[in-house]
Each structure stands twice: as structure tokens, then as C-alpha cells.
Amino acid sequence: MRSSVFWSLVRKDVYLMRGFMGAMMIVGLVSLVLMALGRVGFAVGGILFLTANVAGAIFIALTILFGERKDRSRVFALSLPVSGHQYDMAKLLAGYLSFGIPWLVLTAAALGMFLLPPREHLGMLVYTLVLQGFVLALFSVSLSAMFVITSEAMSGMVILATNICFSLFMVTLNQPGTADPLRGTQVVWTTFAQRMVAGEVLAIALALAFNVFVTSRKRDYL
Amino acid sequence: MNTAASTDAFAMQGVRKSFRHFQLEGLNLQLPLGQIMGLVGPNGAGKSTTIRLLMGLIAPEAGSIEVLGHPMQEDAAAAKRDVAFVSDDMSLFSTATLAWHMRFVASIYPDWDEVYARQLLKRFNLRTDQWVGKLSRGEHVKSMLLLALARRPRLLVLDEPTSGLDPVARHELLTELMQIVRDDARSILFSSHNTVDVERISDQIAFIDRGRLVDARDKESFLDRWRRLSIDVPSGVTLPQLSDVVDLSLGERLATLTTDNYLPQLHAQLERTGAQVREVQRMSLEEIFVACVMRSRAGEPS
């Protein structure tokens, strides 16, 4: 083989996802600029930033697995000299790269914004990390679900569940007692923030382990 | 298992696969290198399941599958290295162009033949700059065939390849397939409803029905052995018990007998009883296929 088929499949997925990745980054970066333009701009930009992240997570998790199954290009990919397990692992890695690259850019840009002078809201660094960690965990769980579901109806349920989870998370995060210390001028790792980040890391690890377990037992790929 | 030592393009032994409403039972099928096998069966017979098993897309519950000397279950990547697969149920990536697909496939296969790919582009009248999602069904099928043929595979597996093609494109494809096996190290397995296509290019033919292999042998053997005889049967004459009779329909004075093992001695056997053979017809592959399937179904427990 000229190049590893595994890496060819990963590159292929990232290439095919380039439009979504670009759109997610553009919308996210524009929203950060809006957030710097006063109170209204901050509110509008904040909503746009969340939308870019959450919509990107759902869309990439859904499209990278379900899209290929739905349009039957999966059969073409599986006809290449690769085992079914390698194909699934390539999908997993491509999914994390396709979402992870724009996620990382947006997270770094958001953190950078709060680190820039006059650095009045350093507390938002923790808030941003908790928020973006939750989005990444949500993406990981959605991607895991997409590995096992086979119907469009079930994928709709995953989207619905993702939205509900995110709404509940935002309500919790923005409770006055929880949010206030995270919006101050100093970096404060509250117990809530520490528990949230630990929970997010655990959810990502469990989702990855679930993927590896499920794909190692799979025998039929159509 | 060593590829060089294998004389079969593929071999399936005792393969079984069950679904909720369908079962493929104890399938034994093999194709020698350098030959074309046509897999013929009605809808839902198990053709696509057989091909999916062969390509490792689904796993058998029992039996073994070897492709070019490699066990498919244990070493799918090696088994598929010299195999190209095109299916009616397959699609390319809709948001990429054919040019991108050509680069993608060329990056994987060292034997990719760019000159041949350009020839096929011209012959199939395809444009490389169009998004695959915008192609017509026929153009899509031709694009998949181009990507399969230009990688110069040792085994080409085609599931209903001519479906969606106009007659001219179908003719071009079949001519192309016959060109490929001029190199006697290359083999083709293709499934089709179209027995005319199968009869035109196959060396080997396998009939499949309701998840069972009904018959498999070389094409000439099928065409040489199967005959339909029209026989005058005068009143008072009873036809003898004959072996190898697949079907016998008796009219008032005329009988039609179908045999799968025609020998000239049959005439003498019949004429000794006073019957007269009026006509002996060669049967088309389609007629043979239908007769085979009907015989197989008649023998099934109800």
C-alpha cells in the first residue's frame, strides 16, 4: 500500500468535514468579536458562541458516522483494504479531529480574550473551561451513541437528549451561587468547577472506552 | 496462507449466515483464478449476502472464506488488498469530486493506472470536476467502475454492476470486463438479474435461490447438457422412466421434456417405445436458470 489506509480514511473524513469545521470556527470567532462589543454584543456573541460549539458537536458526531451509513458511501470505504475494526477506529479518530480542531481553536480564542488586557474577568477562564469541557464531553457521548444506533429516529433522540443535557447544564452553571465566583476578576477553582471538570474527563474516558469495547465486538458492518 | 500458492480467486466453504427472515445455508463456492463467474438468482435469493460475506462486510456464523489466499475474517485488510468491489448498493462521497476520489484511491493502491483511468474517463464520458452528489445514476455507476478498474485488481467483485446503465454503457462495461480477464491472473465475480449479460461473459455460473446454491458449473457445461425435447407420443404409448428429467409436461399427443443431461442415446430410448422426437432445442441461460430454480423449489420440504 502506498499510504496507510487507516490514515487515508482519517484524512478523507477531515477533508469531507472541512466545510462544517470552517463554519464552526468562523461563527465562533465572529461571536467572540461580538462579545467584546459591550453588554448587548456580549449577550448576542455568547449565544452565538454556544450555538457554534453545540451545533458543531451534534452535527459532526451525526454526520461523520450516520451520513456515510445513510448515503451508502460506507460500503465504498469498507471495500478498501481495511478491516471493519480499523474503519471504526479511523472514524473515531476522524470524529475527534474534525470536532477537536475547531473546538480547540475556539477554546483557545475564548481563553485568550479573557487573558488580554485589561484582564478584568479572569474568573471567566474557569467558566470557559468548564463550559467547553462540557461541550467536548457531550460530543464524545453523542459520537459513542452514533456508533451503536442504526435508525434515523434514534439519531433524532440523541440530538434531543444532547439539547436537554446542555440546557440543564447551562441552567446549573448560571445559578447565582455557582456562576458568581466564576465571573470575578480572579481565577477561582470552586468545588463545583472541579467536580464538573472531573465529571467531564470521566465522561470522555467512558465514551472512548465504550467505543473501543463496542467496535472490538462488532462482526457485521452493514 | 500464501497468495502465491492459491489457485482460487476465492473459496467459500460451508458458509452460513442467518437473518430474521432469511438464511444462507452451507454455501460452497469457489472461483479459479482468471475466470469470470456470474452469480444469478431472483430477488432476495442471497446474491448480495454472498457478496457481502465475501467482502468481509458481514461475518459468517459458520464456514470459512478465503480471498486470494487470505482468510477474510482473520485478515480482512490483506484479503481486500487486490480486490475491487462495486455494488448497486454503494455510493461515493457526495461532497467530493471524481478527481478527488481518483487521487484518494490512487494514494492507497500502488498499481493505480493513471493512463488507463484517463482512457476510461473518456470512454465513459465522465467529467472529473463535478461533485459526485450531482452525478446521474449512470454516471455514478461508471465513476465507481472507473475507480475499481483503474486500480488493476486481481479480483473484481461486482454486485449488479449493469443496473442503472444505458445499453451502450452496459455494452462498454461488459467489453471492458472481458478485456480484463485476458490477463489470466485476474478474476471477476458478478451478480446480475440479467442472464443475457451473464451468458455473454461468464466462464462459470452459479445459480442461487432462497439462500441455497442450486447449481454451479462452467457455462458450456450448462448450455451443452440442458435441452428441451418436443416428443410425439402416439396413443397407447407410454414414455419410459428416464433419469435426468427435470420437467415433463404431457399433452394429448405431444410431450415436452426438459433434461439437464442430454445425450443422443436419449432419442433411441424414446423411439424404442414408439415415441418420436420431433425437435431438440438448446435452452437459453434464463430458461436453464428458471428450470433449475423450479426443480430446487419442488424438492424443498413444504
Global structural class of chain B:
alpha/beta
Radius of gyration of chain A: 19 Å
Strand content of chain A: under 5%
Low-confidence stretches of chain A: none
Show the largest interface.
A-B, 26 and 31 residues
Shape of chain A: elongated
| β-strand amount of chain B | 25-35%
Short description:
With 222 residues, chain A is an all-alpha fold. Chain A has nine helices and no strands.
Your description of this structure?
The complex is a heterodimer of chains A (222) and B (302). Chain A is mostly helical and 222 residues long. Chain A is built from nine helices and no strands. The longest helix of chain A is centred in the first third of the chain and has 33 residues, at 38-70. The mean pLDDT of chain A is 90. With 302 residues, chain B is α/β, with parallel strands linked by helices. Chain B has ten helices and 14 strands. A six-stranded mixed beta sheet of chain B has the order 6-7-8-3-9-10, sandwiched between helices. In chain B, strands 2-1-4-5 form a four-stranded antiparallel beta sheet. Chain B has a four-stranded antiparallel beta sheet with strand order 12-13-11-14, with helices on both faces. The interface between A and B is medium-sized, with 26 and 31 residues.
